[in-house]
Write a structure and sequence with these properties.
The chain is an alpha+beta fold. It has 2 domains: 160 residues, Histidine kinase-like ATPase, C-terminal domain (Heat Shock Protein 90), CATH 3.30.565.10; 68 residues. 50% of the residues lie in helices and 24% in strands. Strands 1, 4, 5, 6, 7, 8, 9 and 10 form an 8-stranded mixed β-sheet that branches. It has a two-stranded antiparallel sheet with strand order 2-3. The longest helix is centred in the N-terminal third of the chain and has 43 residues. The N terminus is likely disordered.
Amino acid sequence: MIEYREEAGRVTDWGSAERERLLRQYAEIATLAGGLAHEVRNPLSTIQMNLELLAEDLEGATDPNLGRMRRKLETMRRECTRLESILNAFLQFARAGEMQRTDASLNQIVTEFLDFFRPEAQASGIDLSPYLAPDLPLVSVDENLIRQVLANLVRNAQQAMPDGGQIDVQTALVGDRVTLSVIDTGKGMDERARKKAFDPFFSTKSNGSGLGLPTVRKIIEAHGGTISCESEPGRGTKFTIELPAATGQPV
């Protein structure tokens, strides 16, 4: 099992002063990322538009040379689309620390997300099973960001099971921490991939941006929580998140 923040062999919790420092740092990074994205997106959009116009000019061409040119244009258009996806993933990563927190029910957030995702899971041959502990205390979270975390972890599990399988989503109370686990029966990860899973731009997928799990890590970190990963090749993967309980009523 790996956990994304360790000191002297043990996981440490973020104090309030440290969280405030991180949030200020994230805000600065988000501002810089927004400016960079603007500078990149404008010329990229112009390139895409001109490629589309060229493709229209070549539509229906019968000359073999023009046909080869059209295929090259299609390759360039696909690469522009891929660059735009990477840019969007980078922006999402950079802005992961921006939060609007409220005291919320983690069980309710999970239930609403699974209701939304269930048709897609069924179409992929995936059995989606929630195991939600009763009487969980509230957690102080940005609900949209926690849904983003769920979406990322569940879709990662879906991609690890191209022929279908099982995804279990569990909540529990461990001491004063509320836990959320996403467990799949997919292909799993070897030790190298598991250790690098939260590294920015690392991906085992040929078309992956490598920013999904780092974004999850940043979101959980900004909430004062921890995330750990257990995985073995052929035996699936388990991600476990721990969040501090809010001072609220049990749900």
